[in-house]
Amino acid sequence: MISFTSAQLGAWLGAFIWPFVRILALVGSAPIFGNPSIPVRVKVGLSFVITLLLSPVLGTMPAVEPGSAAGLLILAQQVVIGVAIGFVMRIIFTAVEMAGNIAGMQMGLGFATFFDPQNAAQTPVVSQFLGLLATLVFLASNGHLLMIEALAHSFQVLPVMSQPFSAGGWRVLAGWGGEMFLAGTLLSMPIMAALLTINIALGIMTRAAPQLNIFSVGFPITLAAGFVVLAFALPYFAPVFDRLIHDGVQMTLMVLRQANPVAIP
Q1: What is the pTM of this model?
Q2: Number of domains forming the structure of the chain
Q3: What are 50's strand-pairing partners?
Q4: Residue 171 falls inside a structural domain
Q5: What is the pLDDT of residues 220-231, one digit of tens each?
Q6: Does 95 map to a domain?
Q7: Residue 172 belongs to a domain
Q8: Domain range holding 239?
């Protein structure tokens, strides 16, 4: 007759539940996977399958009872790790949406908004267009697979442990958040530069001919020029976004490596 002790059952449960919680937190917060339109049972099922595939290679887990205070602390740490990985990748999409917001306001389309189910809010149409384009580039460049690969590697960089995190990782994560503004500004720079030149030209025309109605003439000019510059800039958008994806994966591992209280080469 096969019998199991409570310690063995606790060890088996911890070996599955702790990685599962980290993976589920990533799936719930990462771009594409964390879309609100995806049913919750699909996210849980995907996390369950990934956990089953990764469990044999995760190594030994802490000898802590999952239901104890230390086990619940480890559980909370895994949630924070998964959300941090998803947050790093979501910053990339936020930078693209920020570029669309800036471009839309400069073009005069700041009032043209649609409901975005990803953010559950009204977003400008240019921002939503660039966000959809970024999603297609993300899938075409296997960004979702790179994110899963980074998740699997995270268990070697920052394994499941009972020690508290180091503060260095969160400083790196905060610094990566500043990249959102830098990348968003750089992506919108072509449209901003072109429309700034056009606005200066319209200002000179208004100064030379005060009877010119700048509102009836300037709006269609800036709108048309914005679409033309956006069409010319789109071919250069994919390589920049692909580089941001790889930078995000590397930043994920850097954050986890700095958050590990035990140095791992």
Answers
A1: 0.79
A2: 1
A3: none
A4: yes
A5: 788 888 888 888
A6: yes
A7: yes
A8: 6-259
